[in-house]
Amino acid sequence: MGYIFVGLGNPGDEYKNSRHNTGRMVLEYLHNAGDFSEWKHNVKLNALVSKGKIRSKVVTLIEPETMMNKSGYSLSGLVTNAKSAENIVVLYDDIDLPLGRVKISFGRGSGGHKGLASIIKKIKTKDFVRFRIGISLPLKRGGVKKPKGESGVIDFILGDFSKKEKAQINKIAKQVSEVAEALVTKGLNNARNSFN
What CATH fold (topology level) applies to the domain 3-195? Predict the structure, then answer.
């Protein structure tokens, strides 16, 4: 089975430019920059699916059409064992990382991200690749400026990127597409070394 890249977000125009849709935004860039088929709605998965290749390696792109906290439903029919889960690559927004920063990780917990928690629960393993894409404002002394309280976090992640912030996401999407190529052709360690 080839790699499956999953871009997390919420469907619908009202969420299209929100910070919580970063995973979908970056996946769209990957789709448009590569050799992929048109998006088709897969009823069984309740997701938009596109198939193609990255440097002759078969790759499937998936955008769940569920709300974020139900993202795992779109993968439960695809991942039948722990070995197949290792080919899953989930792209998602990370409030603990500054805007413009991406970290590649494997086998971690959800970090409180509802979409990731849904996937872990549905496929019954946390052993898959994650591209954690930062969305928070960086502080001069290091770290990030995070909103306070649950309602503050929700307002922030569901808020839209500014034009300047969106430009940074587009820039990072280009880098992610290059690292995706390294991942599918040379493996996880190579991709990590070139990006983290």
Answer: Rossmann fold (3.40.50)
Q: Using CA atoms in the order 27, 129, 150, 71, what is the torsion angle rounded to 10 degrees?
A: 60
pLDDT of residue 100: 85
Intervals of the chain under pLDDT 50: none
Give yes or no for a contact between 36 and 50, defined as CB atoms under 8 angstroms apart.
Answer: yes
Q: Which two tokens stand for residue 70?
A: 């139900």
Structure tokens of 87? 């080919």
The active-site residue, picked from 20, 31, 41, 113, is 20
Task: Spell out the residues 6+ positions from residue 113 whose beta carbon is closer than 8 angstroms to its own.
Answer: 92, 93, 94
What is the 3-state secondary structure of 118-149? HHHHHHCCCCCEEEEEEEEEECCCCCEECCCH
pTM, entire model: 0.94
Strand partners, 103: 132
pLDDT of residue 1: 64
Kindly report the number of other CB atoms within 10 A of residue 169's CB atom.
Answer: 23
Q: Is 31 a catalytic residue?
A: no
Nearest-angstrom CA–CA distance, 151 and 147: 9
**47-71 b/e with 16+ CB inside 10 Å = b?**
bbbbebebeeeebbbbbbbbebebb
